[in-house]
Amino acid sequence: VPFKPRAAGARAWEPSSPELLAPARFALDEYNRGRAAGSRAVLGTVRGRVRRTAQGSLYSLEATLEEPPCKDPLVCLLPVSKKTMLCTFEILNELGKHILLRRDCGPVDTKVTALVSSLFQPYPDNRNESVSSFLPQLNSDPLHQDFSMKITSVFKDFVATYNRTYESEEEAQWRLSVFARNMVRAQKIQALDRGTAQYGVTKFSDLTEEEFRTIYLNPLLREEPSKKMRLAKSLTDP
Amino acid sequence: APPEWDWRKKGAVTEVKDQGMCGSCWAFSVTGNVEGQWFLNRGTLLSLSEQELLDCDKVDKACLGGLPSNAYTAIEKLGGLETEDDYSYQGHVQACSFSAQMAKVYINDSVELSQNEQKLAAWLAQKGPISVAINAFGMQFYRHGIAHPLRPLCSPWLIDHAVLLVGYGNRSNIPFWAIKNSWGSDWGEEGYYYLHRGSGACGVNTMASSAVVN
User: Fold this and answer.
1) Closest CA of chain B from A106, distance in Å
2) Cβ within 8 Å, pair B173-A218
3) Which residue of chain A is at minimal alpha-carbon distance from B122?
4) Where in the sequence numbering do the catalytic residues of B fall?
5) Taking CA atoms, what residue in B is nearest to A227?
6) Chain A contact for B197, CB < 8 A?
7) Whose CA, among A1, A69, A188, B110, lies 20 to 30 Å from A238?
């Protein structure tokens, strides 16, 4: 295996180095721990280096993990939610046993910028907007052609589940449009989340972001300076 | 701090409540904290009145929002909190009908807690659930799992929702806070939100406070 010395006791490894596979698979198992079969991520590329220490071998890995495509219809409607995570791991191999010392994962950067900027597109003022008009590509992209039908079906389930009533057909159409936008928005939030959270249909899915903020959130928390409170005493040793 | 803690398992947390179409999260966060403090100091879990705070805390703005620090002061000045049964939640402001004779709990003081999440965990495990405020980014669509939004999307400077820390632990090696929300049990994980712990996610460590019951 070709390598360049980086520091005393350290070697740089090629991506295909077999010695990295065992710690990489261990890291993957740790990443997938608690997940059901079918929802586990798979290993993409791996690269890294190893440092020999008195305690054993310390592996520093950088790996891409491919999350499986989303299957829950309440969480994802568009077939675009496959997510690539870029992870760094520090793994110690001591007497043949792997120990995960550090893990840091996040979505691959190339997708992040576009997703972040598209998250903050405003809702339209036009209350006559339909589902197909806000995503014109739905009309041409065969992958998305059934989106309108799917979203209408999920919206009907939402209306039934949460006992929604709307004043008019126009209002219902507008809410369907907001709901569809929110589903796309939820998927973007999902793609940008670094944890295990799932985002999708909730009882607030037919509200615009502004409506949600106005009705349910508390702007005073950031607008008004909090009254100075006495600091709690430090805890004594238990 | 112990590696994990859950006050729900120890009987210190009432059922998940629903603030309805009203920005009264601050009141629910504070009553949840006082419920925990009263339980830990007096041994009885009582479900306490948010409506009393909406109606009688004149510094805060009922459904338009409020601050936990003001609410503690209001509870002290009023002379305590009535129970949920005696002063039930309506979800909109009404005339104050608090009666000191009906108050079932009191508080003596309130304190601000550390911004260090390890110290917060230690405090929680020893002293009880903590009132905190967070940036609610993504919560409109949250269903389950541990949320860990990118920091620029969930800035600690844009706090807009008050909630209650009731526990913490790790799931699949990911550290989390268990957070009681006030949007009903048909939201999130039976009304609870799980947020990444240790990274200052969504400003969870910036406005931690508690009532003091002697």
Assistant:
1) 9
2) no
3) A235
4) 25, 161, 181
5) B69
6) no
7) B110
* ipTM attached to this prediction: 0.95
Given a contact cutoff of 8 angstroms between Cβ atoms, the answer to whether A62 and A47 are in contact is: yes
- For residues B89 and B18, give the distance between their C-alpha atoms in angstroms, rounded to a whole number: 9
**How do B5-6 and B130-134 pair as beta strands?**
unpaired
Q: What is the radius of gyration, based on Cα positions, of chain A?
A: 24
Do B60 and B91 contact (CB within 8 A), yes or no? no
Note the pLDDT tens digit of each residue in A193-230.
Answer: 999 999 999 999 999 999 999 999 998 998 766 678 88
Specify the higher pLDDT residue, B80 or A224.
Answer: B80
Angstrom distance (rounded) from CA B64 to CA B69: 16
Burial B1-27 (b: 16+ CB within 10 A, else e): beeebebeeeebbbebbbbbebbbbbb
What residues 15-34 of chain B have any CB closer than 8 A to a CB of chain A? Answer: 19, 21-23, 25-26
pLDDT in tens, B129-172: 999 999 999 999 999 999 999 999 999 999 999 999 999 999 98
Q: What is the pLDDT of residues B166-198, one digit of tens each?
A: 999 999 889 999 999 999 999 999 999 999 999
Give how far the C-alpha of residue A96 lies from the chain's centroid of Cα atoms, to the nearest Å.
34
Q: Is the dihedral of CA B100, B104, B108, B110 positive or negative?
A: negative
pLDDT at A105 over 70: yes
A200 neighbourhood in chain B, CB within 8 Å: 141, 143
On whether any CB of chain A is under 8 Å from the CB of B126, the answer is yes
Q: Distance (Å) from the C-alpha of residue A163 to the closest C-alpha of chain B?
A: 13
Q: Are the Cβ atoms of A221 and B65 closer than 8 angstroms? A: yes
